[in-house]
Design brief:
By secondary structure, this protein is α/β, with parallel strands linked by helices. It has one domain: Ribokinase (UDP-N-acetylmuramoyl-L-alanine:D-glutamate ligase). Helices cover 39% and strands 22% of the residues. Strand 7 and strand 8 form a beta hairpin. Helix 11 packs antiparallel against helix 12 and helix 12 packs across helix 13. The two termini are 28 Å apart.
């Protein structure tokens, strides 16, 4: 087995986030389910965009956010995703590279436009997302760079991407290639409704192809069809080498074999916007994991990164995470 050149390569939807403030009445009037992600078509995307207040446009997508966090920590990462040769595709590619993540995909020259996610942040800091997946739904095995993903210690799969059949095939091919090269595979469950849509397929994927699983309380209870977190935790045991389950202000629980680590949440400032908290947690955890940290330390670093993410609008770090980790956790 050759030495890994990168820490993590993420595979996910290449999306440009459009963030704005909104109130509960706005969500209700537009049929948006608060605190969740809804997939929308072109017509609804245009209507919602027209109805939005002043907005900020930044490169996003769950796995891409995680890779940006790893880069901010000083890690070496890459991203695989599909964009069009349009304005938003150019914004996405520029932003992720400028942040220190390798991205070499050639943009598609035809088909739907680059994906975008309309994010409405309510005064209680909850985020409600309406996502137009655009060209990203055409992502398939032909878009994989197998040498690139084999160059990483961990291949990180974004659950949101699982909706389309070609992406399912790509995930399986990527997992097999990573394991054949002696690498690890991680998966984020992404969203409780995503889990509900693909529960059986996710269980099969986790059982046979995933080493590290990320989920929150709602996602793990949905995955195993139980009513409470403790039951979900017990059901999750043994399905993967490592399972990291986040619980918002209650912190996280990390499982590995007989090990159980309860990790507190870490506050970096007032809660402004919960967008990307799970992505940031995964960034901290995976960075720690690829540097050989203990699982508890990985969880602590995940908590710190999540705390930074929710202290401002938008999912990408506003403070250098390496500096923050040095100050708060005495990391070298």
């Amino acid at each position: 087995m050759t030495a890994a050149e990168l820490d993590v390569v993420g595979i996910g939807n290449a999306i440009v986030d459009v963030l704005t403030h909104a109130d509960d009445d706005f969500l209700a009037s537009h049929g948006l389910n608060k605190g969740t992600m809804t997939l929308i078509d072109t017509e609804r995307a245009e209507a919602l965009y027209s109805a939005m207040g002043p907005a900020v446009e930044v490169s996003g997508g769950s796995a891409a956010n995680t890779m940006a966090g790893i880069a901010s920590l000083g890690g070496a990462g890459g991203f695989i995703g599909k964009v069009r040769n349009d304005q938003l595709g150019g914004i996405f590619a520029h932003d992720i590279r400028a942040g220190g993540t390798a991205f070499s995909a050639q943009p598609a020259t035809d088909g739907p436009p680059t994906a975008r996610c309309l994010i409405f942040v309510t005064p209680d800091a909850q985020r409600t997302m309406a996502t137009y997946l655009g060209v990203s739904v055409q992502f398939g095995p032909q878009d994989l760079d197998l040498d690139f993903l084999r160059s990483a210690k961990v291949v990180y799969l974004e659950g949101y991407l699982w909706d389309a059949e070609p992406a399912k095939k790509a995930f399986l091919e990527a997992s097999k290639a990573a394991h054949a090269a002696g690498r690890k595979v991680a998966l984020s469950l992404s969203d409780p409704f995503c889990v509900e849509r693909h529960r059986g397929a996710f269980r099969h994927l986790i059982e046979g192809h995933v080493d590290i699983l990320f989920g929150n309380e709602a996602e793990i209870t949905s995955l195993f069809e139980v009513d409470d977190f403790d039951s979900g935790l017990q059901q999750a045991r043994g399905h993967c080498d490592v399972i990291a389950l986040t619980r918002s202000e209650k912190g996280s629980v990390v499982l590995s074999g007989e090990e159980v680590h309860v990790v507190d949440a870490i506050s970096v400032g007032p809660v402004v916007d919960t967008t990307g908290a799970g992505d940031a947690y995964a960034a901290g955890f995976l960075y720690g994991y690829t540097q050989g940290f203990s699982l508890y330390r990985c969880g602590e670093l995940g908590s710190l990164c999540a705390g930074e993410a929710i202290s401002h609008m938008g999912p990408r770090p506003e403070r250098p995470l390496k500096q923050l980790a040095t100050e708060k956790l005495n990391l070298p």
